[in-house]
Design brief:
Elements (H helix, E strand, L loop, with lengths): L5 E4 L1 E4 L6 H4 L18 H7 L2 H4 L22 E4 L11 H9 L3 E4 L4 H8 L4 E4 L2 H11 L5 E4 L4 E3 L5 E3 L4 H9 L3 H6 L2 H14 L10
Parallel strand pairs: 2-3, 3-4, 4-5
Antiparallel strand pairs: 1-6, 6-7, 7-8
Helix pairs in contact: 2-4
């Protein structure tokens, strides 16, 4: 998967709770309702279809009032949202659509659990902050000025220079910084796993049964 180390760009305010995965990655655009598009889409198609039901009218023309259709946020790297972002279905395509558009971090007070896990598997950070802080950041985001995310330092810096620190588990942080999935990260620990097994054989020989020869 792609790594996420540092990114800077506008933050699109979408201060609506309960934005679900069907809205993020819809199966069709308004003009083709009832005709689901194939799952074999290119990144360009995914980017174009992100939030399609909210971005386009019934002729598939852009709605100028939707935040991602406005010039400062066409290149957004962040989304500022409210509670329960990406609730609903388990479709991993919700993360793929966001990533294809260029979003690298979604900030919300809470997330759908499956979406939250899928983000770390696809190089996107779901950052949990309280609603009051998010509303303050949204006021700064209105101009389209850049926010900066630094995963190494675990900081989010607003256009005003305000820096917000956050915490990540070592496992999640390593996954983002290196772009490694769970299997690759486990393989990197083969020496430590082997040492642990050897220790168990000495101290608790009944735990590990030798394979039959």
């Amino acid at each position: 998967m792609p790594s996420l180390i540092e990114v800077a760009g506008p933050a699109a305010p979408m201060l609506t709770p309960n934005i679900n995965t069907d809205a993020i990655a819809p199966l069709y655009r308004p003009a083709t309702a009832g005709s689901p598009r194939p799952f074999t889409q290119t990144d360009e198609e995914r980017a174009k279809n992100l939030f399609a039901g909210l971005r386009y009218d019934l002729a598939d023309d852009e709605l100028p009032d939707f935040v991602l259709n406005r010039p400062p946020f066409r290149s957004a790297k962040f989304i500022l949202a409210l509670d329960n972002f990406a609730c609903g279905s388990s479709r991993e395509s919700a993360v793929w659509y966001l990533y294809a558009f260029g979003i690298r971090c979604v900030v919300a007070p809470s997330f759908g659990e499956i979406f939250f896990d899928n983000c770390f598997k696809n190089g996107l950070l779901p950052l949990v902050l309280d609603a009051a802080t998010i509303r303050e950041l949204a006021a700064e985001a209105a101009t389209g000025a850049d926010f900066t995310l630094d995963v190494r330092r675990a900081t989010l810096t607003a256009p005003s220079g305000r820096t917000i620190e956050f915490t990540l588990s070592d496992f999640r942080r390593e996954a983002l910084l290196t772009g490694a999935d769970e299997i690759a990260m486990t393989q990197r620990r083969e020496a430590a796993i082997a040492a642990h097994q050897e220790r168990q054989r000495r101290e608790r020989p009944w735990v590990l049964r030798e394979s039959a020869k």
